[in-house]
Amino acid sequence: KMAAGEAAGRYRSTMSKSKDPSGLLISVIRTLSTSDDVEDRETEKGRLEEAYEKCDRDLDELIVQHYTELTTAIRTYQSITERITNSRNKIKQVKENLLSCKMLLHCKRDELRKLWIEGIEHKHVLNLLDEIENIKQVPQKLEQCMASKHYLNATDMLVSAVDSLEGPLLQVEGLSDLRLELHSKKMNMHLVLIDELHRHLYIKSTNRVGQRNKEKGRISSLVKDASSVPLMDVTNLSTPRKFLETSQFSTPGSSSMRETSLLEIKEDMELDPEENSAVFMGILIKGLAKLKKIPETVKAIQDRLEQELKQIVKRSTTQVADNGYQRGENLSQENQPR
């Protein structure tokens, strides 16, 4: 009995000190295993049952006292649990939707890229079609420009058309005839420009002097002073050399004004291109430069120089003779044999 009492004391002290249920269970097992008397065991068992019953009664009382709070707490807990579960399901659904959107966006991006590339291709095709349409009109426009002697515009148009036909439009089989035609015209274009250049260099300039001479002859024939024989005045005649020299020294300090003045020459489609011979010859030289035929031009000028000068002498001699004959006729009519 003393041993059982000591065990019961240890059990109570253990219950009072320890709040761990496992420790309490181990203490009870130890107490029952060390007890030798069946009566002590029954007594211990009775105490345990009484203690459990007391706990149940206390629990029931507490439940009765706090029933409302407990019910509210349980409902709140259930609501929170349901919300958490719904939130998890919604988050899972959102993740699935995001993955689906990502896949769709990838597909849309590829589709948009494809449409963008197709748009660029169609734009390029439209530009090529517009260029083809413009090039088809080149022969007619070229003929008009050549007829009106707007050679610089014709040269630009021809060079640009040939570059397109032999470049981006090289694979267009339907333009082969036009390509050959324009290429042939480009190869022969410089011959026309060289002829025009020679005409202004040697013929048109001397014709102006002859016309001035005739005008002075008419004036002198009205004046009865036979000593005032008209002479050829070429000091004020505009020649390419004078044109380039005056433009060269128009702005002091410029070492490349000769080239600059040639680059600044522009063709006015509304005016007569031959009105100013110097500008017209500048336009011809600029056109020959665009055709890359300057060496051929220099060679042609050198080859034809002697022949053209002889023609100038021949024409001048004829003009002087005709003028002298006409003056003699006028003087003879006025009974002035001298």
UniProtKB/TrEMBL annotation:
One of its GO terms (biological process) is chemical synaptic transmission. Residues 1-21, 316-338 are annotated as: Disordered. The keyword Nucleotide-binding does not apply. Keywords: Coiled coil, Exocytosis, Protein transport, Transport. This is Exocyst complex component Sec8. It holds the Pfam family Sec8_N. Residues 46-144 form the Exocyst complex component Sec8 N-terminal domain. Component of the exocyst complex involved in the docking of exocytic vesicles with fusion sites on the plasma membrane. Residues 329-338 have a biased composition (Polar residues). It comes from Rissa tridactyla. Residues 273-323 form the Exocyst complex component Sec8 middle helical bundle domain. Belongs to the SEC8 family. GO terms for cellular component: exocyst; growth cone membrane; synapse. The lineage of its organism: Eukaryota, Metazoa, Chordata, Craniata, Vertebrata. Residues 45-97 form a coiled coil.
